[in-house]
Amino acid sequence: MPLLDDEYTGTVRWPRLRQDVAIVTWPSFLVASVATMICFAFIDPVLVGNDDYPPPAFATRMSGYAIGFFFFWLISALSSLLTLYLARTAHPEPPETDKPDDWTRSAP
Amino acid sequence: MTAPDATQDGGLYAARQKIYPREISGRFQRLRVIAVWVLLGIYYVLPWIRWGERQAVLFDLPARKFHVFALTLWPQDFYFLTWLLVIAALLLFFFTALAGRLFCGYACPQTVWTEAFLWMERLFEGSRSQQMKLARAPWSMEKLLRKGGKQFAWIAFALWTGFTFVGYFTPIAELASKIAGFSTGPWETFWVLFYGGATYVNAGFMREQVCKYMCPYARFQSAMFDHDTLIITYDDRRGEPRGARKKGTDHKAKGLGDCVDCTMCVQVCPTGIDIRQGLQYECIACAACIDACDEVMDKVGYPRGLIRYDTQSGLEGQRKRVLRPRTLVYATLLAVLVAGFAVTLSGRNVVGIDVIRDRNALFRERPDETIENVYNVKILNKDGHAHEFRVTGSGIPGLVVDYAGPTVWVGPGAVQSVPVRVRIPEDALEGGADIELAIEATDAPELTATGQARFIAPTD
User: Of B176, B264, B311, B337, which sits with the fewest C-beta atoms within 10 Å of its C-beta?
Assistant: First the structure.
């Protein structure tokens, strides 16, 4: 007797695209949170407003923090995306058996 | 193997379908429910607790001050946060070495909120089989009401979660009245919706898939396991060969193990794995299968613990060792760090000084044959009550400090800017020299701080 009905097809094994979106956005979110904390522990966003041409969004701290957070998220997501792309498009590792343990000694 | 094919083939199981974990009761489930109530209780209640004039726990980002009960932390105290994070990481290592993924099963926000959402789902849609039946059924008024009711409860709970989250950063009572009057600021609105939305999606839909696909800890926690780590395991020496049997038959005579192959352990699993295939990285150690199996063992009259918390060594019939070098090292490190944290925190300097040169003029030559530099001195009083401060200077012979009043009053948890004029005799210096400006509380001489500055004099 099958435990669950076969006709119900809400898949739980995520499709590749959803996996990719998850592993790009989530780790970058974590890193961005840490980066935001460290950055704004040392830099007060309103001080950026003391520049000659302050970006108007930094006028208040709350928007300064938020913009900083999303900036970090964007940057780290880009990095995650590139890493994922490189990992996904790399040539697959040759099977274990074809690889001598120590290539220096395997030379004739 | 003589085990029936259905249990061996993961494909027939929930693994590739939406998982409807079967509701379960038992001692570990009770523990989990307690954990959910305690942790969510703390989360939702904490911002409402008052401490004197203010909210007891408030991470006041606009003012750049963190209030935690009697403590007020400033950006300068950032290293305490780093320290806390190190302690938290070590705690995680310690508990992982001790008993595997305790954190995942009982305390992870993902698990805790998922539990709450599952509870609401059951409230509206009924038991596991009722939920599956409802999903199959054509749309009707009842289905609409049940599904709609669940969504309403989920969304309301998620929004309340988002509201509470923002309440840690902006005074929650004010925030509540702002929301009641639809007058929240754009960022407050945004973060309530952002955090609420994340809760809704994470706990309502992604659930344990987050652990499977997105959680880094799930991937590396096994590196902290050893033969003496308590993990949730199926005792296959006792259970196999598994198989159904009639009540009262002597299964040992028929060559069967204790596992009656009821598949309850699979049905209750929130990640849809079969624990009888051994430890898998999807397992979040919620112990639901232990409760399920114990219940079945009670019913058929076999001893409990076919699925149980045990160590690799224990399963192989060896001694269990909770105290071992790894756990002892973690425990010692933790004790040292926690003690150091407490000592440093209690002994931290609660006053600070920041000296900034006046930008407008390098120096001024005064008629009384002195050279004057002007500084903007910021006095930080991180203490819980107000103090009067004296400002003094040193570094150049004949240096005199001049500022408004004999003392400067700085309120509790406040910063006071004081323009300070520093004068030296004309012939004391050519070019520049480093000076020191110091503050001292008049009522508490141990509260002192010094700041460096550059004094500039003409070169002729």
Answer: B176
CB contact under 8 A, A3 and B263: yes
- In angstroms, the first-to-last Cα distance of chain B is 100
Q: Tell me if A12 and B15 make a contact (CB, 8 A cut-off).
A: yes
Q: B139 and chain A: CB distance < 8 Å anywhere? A: no
What span, in angstroms and rounded, lies between the C-alpha atoms of B162 and B377?
A: 40
Tell me the DSSP string of A19-58: HHHHHHHHHHHHHHHHHHHHHHHH--HHHHTTSSS--GGG
Q: Where are the domains of chain B?
A: 20-73+108-206, 351-456
Residue in chain A closest to B77 (alpha carbons) equals: A41
- CB A66 to CB B132 under 8 A? no
Longest dimension (CA), chain A: 74
Q: Quick check: B46 and B69 in contact, CB under 8 A? A: no
How many whole angstroms separate alpha carbon A108 and alpha carbon A86? 33
Q: CA A94 to CA A96: how far, in whole Å?
A: 6
The residue of chain B with its CA nearest to that of A64 is B62
A-B contacts at Cβ under 8 angstroms: 75
Closest CA to B257 of B233, B238, B274, B275: B238
Q: What is the pLDDT of residues B106-146, one digit of tens each?
A: 889 999 999 899 899 989 998 888 888 888 888 889 999 99
Best CA proximity match to B232, nearest among B187, B293, B178:
B293
Q: Which CATH class is domain B351-456?
A: mainly beta
